[in-house]
Amino acid sequence: MIRILLADDHALYRDGLKILLEQREGLAVIGEATDGGEAVRMAEELRPDVCVLDMSMQVLNGIDATREIRKRVPDAKIVLLSMHEEEAYILAALKVGASGYVFKTQTDRDLIHTIEMVAKGAFYLGPNIPHSVIDALTHNTTQVNDVLTERELQVVKLIGDGMSYREIAGILGLSPKTVESHRGRIMQKLKLEQTTQLICYAVRAQISKIMPAR
Fold this sequence. Notes:
elongated, alpha/beta, 11 helices, seven-stranded parallel sheet
């Protein structure tokens, strides 16, 4: 049984999701949150297998709620529901540890399939995710571990965790300027031109399995 926490500040939409999910054998909604702050508290209390969070919520939005839940309940998988189809929003979700991203314009089947996949430990993006994101995540020219130093791998991991340069500097005992220099060398070694590409590599380095859209 996959235990699910729902979080959406629109009661009618949340109620509809609950009915939809509980009609599927093997899924159970164990909690409902009305905003991002409540979602974090309930996740810590209930320890769900999967949290389905609306991207746009009061108190904490989906990105901030995901970041907090991942800190407090590392085993919980996060699926973000969003009206935003721009690459920047998707990459922001990946940076803070979301395992799935579903547009609200997608079908019920897409959401259920995403929940089932991430509950198994997979990383799943729906069928309408922009090709630029998919290409960056699945790009396989060079194995990161083969070309980066141990320190550079640490920097990549922390970037994938959504840390700022200042936060990374504090954790590794470096200056923010040194962290920035590491980032520059990493991008040069990996032949990357944009920071968004580095974010994709950072996320990819921490994902054990990428599930292609059906």
